[in-house]
Automatic annotation (TrEMBL):
InterPro entries: DHFR-like_dom_sf, RibDG_C, Riboflavin_Biosynth_HTPR. Residues 4-184 form the Bacterial bifunctional deaminase-reductase C-terminal domain. Pfam families: RibD_C (PF01872). This is Dihydrofolate reductase. One of its GO terms (molecular function) is 5-amino-6-(5-phosphoribosylamino)uracil reductase activity. It comes from Naumannella halotolerans. GO terms for biological process: riboflavin biosynthetic process.
Amino acid sequence: MRELTYFVAVSVDGFIAGPAGQFDQFLVEGDHAGEIWAKYRGTAPTALAAAAGLPVEGGPFDTVLMGWNTFAVGLPELPDPYQHLRQIVFTHEHQAPEGAAGVDFTDRDPVEVVRELKAEAGAGIWLCGGGALAAVLADEIDRLSLKVNPVLLGDGVRLFGDRPYDPAALRPLAVSAYQSGVVLAEYVRH
């Protein structure tokens, strides 16, 4: 069965973006970048990876899930951001923008969609954001991989949105600390 991995950059205080969706405080260069890319190859938009000379084939995922706000970060320049992956955007309010032919927009229940995806053959499923979608899918997440950045944001989009108090134990897999200050913390569900 396929696994759902929530792989995302996060601040030390638990935000994946600022109040206006900004994420420019997260480090994209440094000694962590190459090693994390090697492990999570294919987790950059196709055009950006090509411009940086980064291969996207052979990564752990063949499907990427995101909410509208995460998807909209790349608009209008990247309406089909992860062309090398199957792309699913969850939205109740928005229609597909021009140029997004390779993206599936759905207002279906995310839990139902993820359960169907897990039953299919294929590689891993990547939840790249956002916090509200992660809150809905919390019980379906098999792996949590956090690129913890050495910054406090103070406000913004929480890692798991407004998820109510409901403790769920995770088992640590690995923690890798880098000179850049980034820490890759990886967990699996018990």
